[in-house]
Amino acid sequence: MFDQTNLRVFANHVRAAAENMAYTLQRTAHSAFVKETEDFTVMLMNRKGETFGVPMGLGATWYPGLTWGRVIDMVGDYRPGDVAFTNDPYSGHVATHAPDTHLWKPVFHDGELIAWTGGHIHNTDMGGAVPASLSRALTEIHQEGIRFPPMKLVREGVFDETILSIMTTNVRKPDLNVGDIKALVGALNTGERKILAMVQKFGKQAFLEGAEALLDHAEAQARSILRSMPDGTWEFVDYADEDSVEANPCRLKLTLTIRGGEAVLDFTGSDPQLGSSLNVPSGGDPRHTILLVGVYYVLYTLNPNILLNTGLTRPFTCIAPEGSVLNPVQPAAVGMRSLTCARLRSVIFGAFSQAVPQRLPAAPAGNNCIVNVMTTDERTGRTVLAAVNPVVGGGGGMPHRDGTNGSGADAAYLKNTPIEITETEVPIEFLRYGLARDSGGAGRWRGGLATEMAFKVFAPGSRITARNRDRSFFRPWGVLGGRAAGLSDMVLNPGTDRYLRLGNIDTAVLQPGDVLEIRSAGGGGRGNPLERETWRVARDVQRGYVSVEASEQDYGVVIRQGVVDEAATARLRSLAPVPVAHFHFGPEREGYEAQWTPAAYALLTEILAGLPIHWRFFAKTEIFRRMKDRVGHDGVAAAFAETRARFQEMPEPKPVTRMAAE
């Protein structure tokens, strides 16, 4: 029934409905993190719970491929006016950490279920061990706040006050939680009205067929993009700086195979599930949206007209072995899964960059530090808890332009909260919020600059959480001759005798007058920096993006008194070597991989995969502890032999038969 013209008309109605939902939520939410930062989603779903419509300009961009069928089936007996919810990452694997509260509502027409509306909000706090509920240091999900398995929150239009009272008793800012949840219910109601309006306009059968046609069209678009790529297999590895308070790197490995209009993403070789909260709860779903977020960015980069819905996931199959960091089992903590997801996106970008090198950018910053402050407002005596601002890094250099400054591509949906609003809500003083010079990777197209922020607190015992701190050791990589970007950092009381570098620590207690300074990473550069036009380099220097020293060292451009010395520049550039490698990772990773070679990691993966799940992270930590003066495959073998001798309770690893992708 739907030709291309009619389908586009229907798609526009669907998008408008989803955007109306998003506006309803944004304008009625209570917390700054929802109404300003926009960490929320809304969506329209077909009868099976497959997402067929999302907004394009509001909210987070992680979940266009989310499938709700599992949690829908865990409730049952739906009636008009019902709204169900969950925030439990292990119940149906729709929610992925406790602060993300997901709600869904059935839509009936003449007594028949025809669709669902749904969405999530990130609650400022869900209780647990730390303010805002999230810290890398947490080791089991029970520390990350109260969890609700799938259940009805609203029954035929009436809120279950018992459930709300349980929540408000266990969280630190109950008014924000309840206010945001009710705002999301309002958004679901808006979506319901818009769906019924579409049914009235197009007819029920046409609406049902249209929802399926949108999924089929998105699938066809995704397959078309894959067919435009060469068939082949590519491997890529990237690291999170620290897997826990033990501070060993967390390795993610991807083997990408493209054949025709399909792709397999095999994450075998990634680290075992961790004794920290960096685990990603995918449930082993081969098309879980959280594993495919990086794929959505690749597809949308290559075709900005693509429809965002569950149909995009159909050509892809993910392999995430059980008991790995990308498929943990209970009670593994998962609250900081967004840090690992940032690295997961980097791994996906790196693999696809090899498949279509001329069409994709360098690495974005890959860290989106979200800062929360819990302090006392001396004016009122009340405890205040609020998100301050996301500190997001730069985008990678593009095939046709520089990376975006301070808005790192895959984290760009996190909007800045105006400083005036934050200072009104939280008794802190901003000292700086801007771009960091020399932080973008050098290239023909420069990487986007990092963001840096500094603020002062005034009350004793002010508790800070700065989740997703990463890229303070492993840099965002450059491509095709471009250079890796600047690193992130977090410093307490810079420029004073109380100076303390915090690195990737994500919680801290500040006292009156303390200043916290946070800087993100930049974006990687793309292309040979010696080919960047001298006038562009001079303009970057004039704008404060690049220092005079860096213009000479990184770009070979000599600037004297604000003017390019063309003759000196030509001489300097003629002496510089031409980069040839596809990637530039920076000296930190190069030094690390001189010790931890591919052969070393292959043996480590084999050892850990053969152990029971509850032994794996412990064994990894002990092997790393014994690798201080060892290198490569033989070093791992010796370190494991020492570990076995020391801990004789550890079982002998079983041989692992690696299952091939179907």
UniProtKB/TrEMBL annotation:
One of the Pfam families matching this protein, by short name: Hydantoinase_B
Top-level taxon in the UniProt lineage: Bacteria
UniProt keyword annotations, A-Z: Hydrolase
Entry's EC annotation: 3.5.2.14
InterPro entries, per the entry: Hydantoinase_B (IPR003692), Oxoprolinase-like (IPR045079)
Domain spans labelled Hydantoinase B/oxoprolinase: 3-529
One term of GO molecular function: N-methylhydantoinase (ATP-hydrolyzing) activity
Identification of the protein by name: N-methylhydantoinase B
Species annotation: Rhizobium herbae
